[in-house]
Amino acid sequence: MTEITPTTLIACSHGTRFAEGRAVVSALVDHVAHLLPDIEVLPAFVDVEEPAVADVAAAVPADRRAVIVPLLLSRGFHTGVDIARAAKPHEHVHAAQALGPHPLLADVLVSRLAEVGELDAPGTQVVLAASGSSNPIAATDVEALAALLRERLTVPLTVGYAAGSTPLIADAVAAARAAGATRVIAASYVLAPGHFANLVAASGADAVSAPLAVTPGGGVERRVSRVIVDRFREALTAAS
Fold first, then answer.
1. Biggest alpha carbon distance in the chain?
2. Rounded distance, CA 163 to CA 81, Å?
3. Separation between Cα atoms, residue 118 and residue 124, nearest integer Å
4. What pTM did the predictor assign?
5. Helical residues (DSSP H) of 36-102, grouped into ranges
6. Which end of the chain is more exposed for a tag (fewer CB within 10 A), N or C?
């Protein structure tokens, strides 16, 4: 019987046409490789960019156990279809769960919100601004993350979506103001700059936090890397 060793992490992101977003995701994958020096870390994508996750999974030798870690914050079409299909034909390739919800992501959101300033000012409300999905399970994951974030904040928090679910972010911002909020902050629940980050920025909020993986100094958010490592190890344990 061929011995299979845990040697490959396939870091699968959505893909983006935005150069800044590509740079952030690339830096995130590089940091994961730094945290796991004995593991081969390979980038892959479900859309826009290459290589496609199915091609990367198919190229992993049968004597090397691989885990596809979605660099996606919630379950949805890409995790349930694209990534699942990429892993299914190969007994030695396994799919990890989406990054969120995870306590570290809630901690990172608090840090990004603190960078906006005056988070505890009277009249402030936060809208957790997620990308959204037509799959209802994605909203379940976002609501679970919202519950973790509420435990860490002293101001009201509601949820809005860029697409695929309701309320839309702009509607959630408007509803917060109608309920009496004098300052509405959109908490960008996206990993990196790109299409969805731009939709959050255009929501009409008074302030918008930076994407999760973007730190004030321009570095990569190491806590997000740790979540990726957590999902990798969890999947390996489940596959053992």
1. 66
2. 19
3. 8
4. 0.95
5. 53-58, 77, 84-87
6. N
